[in-house]
Specification:
This protein is mainly β. It is built from three helices and twelve strands, in the order E-E-E-E-E-E-E-E-H-E-H-H-E-E-E. 22% of the residues are buried. Belongs to the tRNA methyltransferase O family.
Length: 225
């Protein structure tokens, strides 16, 4: 398959990514097409759709072998399920599927027409293979069941974000970062309340710990470039 675009987001690594698309709608991304696919005619009519499907590559999870079972993080990392019953990145073909909200179609002087989207669960620089419109009449299944994933539906943490630390974060990033932290970025099998975790976000290093049902932000630092 040919890469048609890359998405640019505020998350430079896998740690901290939302576990599914749409969970953090405030998290924005910019889809920039490769030069060969910048013909604006390829996007004619796309503004009429509220949501899009992105087909992309787990570029940081490539392996030469595969396993028929994996350990879904939301099951604590100690229970195995069939790889085709999960959305694990460790698959025979490292392909991901995400549903994002189309926020805007923008013309730029350097990159042609780009797409601004919300709710993406992709790290910065992720290759995109295809984009398709979300069709409510075909894609929405109100009677669908969620298997074992439904057990954790609605799970979130309270976020304790001291004002002096929040002031270090650009104002337009506040909502996205708070929503991201509420989703509990930790590996599901780690519960040490004294352990400090950290991840990159919008040029910042965000450090936190979790005790009971509350995430406490402990430090915000500017990342070294």
């Amino acid at each position: 398959m040919k890469m048609i675009a890359k998405i640019h987001t505020d998350l430079p690594t896998k740690f901290g990514l939302p576990r599914q698309s749409g969970l953090v709608e405030e998290l924005e991304g910019l889809i920039v097409f490769e030069p060969a696919y910048r013909d604006p005619e390829a996007l004619r009519g796309i503004e009429g759709f509220s949501h899009l499907w992105l087909i992309w590559e787990f570029s940081e999870a490539k392996r030469t072998t595969w396993s028929p079972t994996v350990r879904p993080p939301r099951l604590g990392g100690n229970k195995r399920m069939g790889v085709f019953a999960t959305r694990s990145p460790f698959r025979p073909n490292p392909i991901g599927l995400s549903c994002v909200k189309l926020l805007g179609v923008e013309k730029t002087p350097d990159n042609g027409t780009v797409l601004r989207v919300g709710g993406a669960d992709l790290m910065d620089g992720t290759p995109i293979f295809d984009i398709k419109p979300y069709l409510p009449l075909a894609d929405c299944k109100p009677d669908a069941t969620g298997g074992f994933a439904a057990e954790k539906a609605g799970y979130s943490l309270k976020v304790d974000f001291p004002a002096e630390l929040l002031a270090k974060v650009p104002t337009d990033k506040h909502a996205a970062l708070k929503a991201l932290l509420a989703q509990d970025p930790r590996p599901a099998y780690q519960h040490d309340p004294s352990r400090i975790y950290g991840f990159g976000f919008a040029g910042l290093e965000v450090r936190f710990r979790v005790e009971d049902n509350t995430l406490h932000v402990t430090e915000i630092e500017y990342q070294m470039i």
